[in-house]
Amino acid sequence: MQNITLKSKYDGRISVEAEIITPDNFSGKDAKEIGEMDLFMGNKTVKLKDIFEVSVEGSSENPEDTEIIIKGNTDRIKRIGEGMTSGKIVIEGDVDMHCGAMMRGGKIIVKGDADSWAGREMSGGELLIEGDAKNYIGGAYRGETYGMTGGKITVKGNVGAYLGEKMKDGEIVVEGDADMISGMEMLGGKIIIKGDAIMPGGEMKGGTVIVMGEVTDRMPTFKMDGMEIIEGIEFNRYTGDLSVRRAKGVLYMKG
């Protein structure tokens, strides 16, 4: 088992691109080797040791046995865990955009809030956000065909707009409320919103959205086709979005 601790010493004035921070890249390396790895801060290259104090306990060549713990100010650190395939990352504060983007395996825990596009285009693994999250969680970046295609995202707080945009597979669970149009252009997978939601399911073609709280401004382009009991709660079942040709999306709401 290898435990790697990164303690931020960064003032956060300029955002940092930190896609290098994954168990895949760190496993088997000592603190000096990790510290010499390159990051991008604005338009210049810096060393990881310029941003973080690095300490390492144990050693493993296997990313699956590697855990990274990140302490201190990370709210301007982007792309942590991007593309990771295994292992674990624990972020003890807030994190900037694209955390867990395109991850294929492993687990990321964010103990604070996450900025937009967390878990975008992920195909496997698990992302847990213990605070709130902003827009496009589990969605697709500009110009991409699909958002999330596998894995699971859990947000214990509230989320912003366009949750799961272009989602094709996988599962997203939000324990709080969701802003505008969760499941926008959704193709498959499942979104569960335990709080309230605004206009869920816009232009969805497939997949399932379940809203356990109240729905504001329900889309008029969904057709009610029965009732169903989920986890002991009775829901109205709607299909749509009928503004999209051959749409087979399913939206569950209480009203």
Map the helices and strands.
Blueprint: E1 2-8, E2 16-17, H1 23-26, H2 31-35, E3 38-41, E4 44-47, H3 48-51, E5 52-58, E6 66-71, E7 77-78, E8 88-91, E9 107-110, E10 126-129, E11 149-155, E12 169-174, E13 178-180, E14 190-193, E15 197-198, E16 208-211, E17 215-216, E18 223-230, E19 233-240, E20 249-253
Parallel strand pairs: 1-6, 2-7, 6-8, 8-9, 9-10, 10-11, 11-12, 12-14, 13-15, 14-16, 15-17, 16-20
Antiparallel strand pairs: 1-5, 2-3, 3-4, 18-19, 19-20
Concise synopsis of the structure shown:
This protein has three helices and 20 strands. The protein has about 260 residues and is mainly beta.
What is Rg?
A: 19 Å
Bulk shape: elongated
N-to-C terminal Cα separation, in Å? Answer: 51 Å
Strand content of the residues, in percent? 35-45%
Q: What characterizes the major β-sheet?
A: 13 strands, mixed
Give, in order, the helices and strands. EEHHEEHEEEEEEEEEEEEEEEE
Low-pLDDT residue intervals, each spanning 5 or more residues: none
Helix content: under 10%
Number of domains: 1
From the helix content, strand content and strand pairing, which structural class follows?
A: mainly beta
Mean pLDDT: 96
Q: Give me the number of helical elements.
A: 3
Give the oligomeric state.
single chain
Describe this structure in words.
The chain has helices spanning 23-26, 31-35, 48-51; strands at 2-8, 16-17, 38-41, 44-47, 52-58, 66-71, 77-78, 88-91, 107-110, 126-129, 149-155, 169-174, 178-180, 190-193, 197-198, 208-211, 215-216, 223-230, 233-240, 249-253. With 255 residues, it is mainly beta. The protein has one domain (2-200). A 13-stranded mixed β-sheet has the order 5-1-6-8-9-10-11-12-14-16-20-19-18. Strands 4-3-2-7 form a four-stranded mixed β-sheet. The termini are far apart. The mean pLDDT is 96.
